[in-house]
Amino acid sequence: MTPRPDFITGNTRLRARLPALLGPVDYDQLAGVSGGAVAERLAASSAYRAYLNRDQGDDRQLLDSVGRRLRDLLRGVRGLYGGIAGAAVGVLLARHDLQDALALLRGARTGQPAAVRLAAVMGVGAIDHRAAADIAAASDGTTAVIRMATHRLPDTLTARALPAAWERYELTGDSDEFETTIAAAAIDGWTDRLEWIGRAARPVLELIQAECDRANLLAVLRDPALQTPRLLPTGLVPEPALLAARRGDPQPAIATYPNWRQPLERHLHNKDLPALEWDLDVQLWRQAVRGLRRGDPLGATVPVGYVLAAECEARTIRLLLAGTAQAHDVRDLLVP
């Protein structure tokens, strides 16, 4: 029997960080104003004062500042938890490790400058700056794969899958297949780890499953060929339910996720995929933050809620700064 993970100490320390996140009053003040006004208000706030200033007129600099704040919010979260609890929390940050690995490999495949590759790395989990810099300096995709596998990144199991996936890519040139294969290997490893931990890791496992289901649903709805696209490992929504949603019958998917009802029914009428993606994200964020506030204070709902709240804040601020949030009301993110 797996020993019960101890989340108490880590949760206590993580809860002490909650005031650093934007709250209802902050979102309310940022809603409905221009991107320039958002930047000014954030620069005057205690949360973003160290990252933004009124002299930053370049959009790229503003968005990079948001990324730096997110890194600061997430770095060190894993270190707050020891033992088995730390392994569960590590999966939350492994989601960023996977994206970092894909960004480094994508940059190598497409010949991007090393600085550009490195700038895309969050570096909040297992992929630290030194390893990322070594991989980013690779002269080509093959070298990047070898270096990543040598560093055993983003984790040992995924690193083992890299050489075969790269050989397949060199034959087919199918970058989507290559990245999906890597992602699937990582997610399968996370799932095995969380299932071994057991009930205490359930909030993290449910998040991974929900993110896979969301990504798979959007992939199926986005595919114009009316064929099954390459999918991530199935979460709770089986492939037939995804295909039924594309045919206009969302009920099988809604049976698994009742909070998908309104987003999917709206999509039936407007066929607006970006709006659907936002609506699904909002549902996921609200559920996670509700768990942070009202869930088990001794379990994994606290780190799940904190990490998603930080990620949600960064994505929302990027939309507001870019002036592309008109179609979304950030007040949707507030949890009653």
TrEMBL record:
Keywords (A to Z) from UniProt: Ion transport, Transport
Pfam families per record: vATP-synt_AC39 (PF01992)
Top-level taxonomic group: Bacteria
Family stated for the protein in its record: Belongs to the V-ATPase V0D/AC39 subunit family.
Protein name: Vacuolar-type H+-ATPase subunit C/Vma6
Originating organism: Kribbella pratensis
Top-level taxonomy: Bacteria, Bacillati, Actinomycetota, Actinomycetes, Propionibacteriales
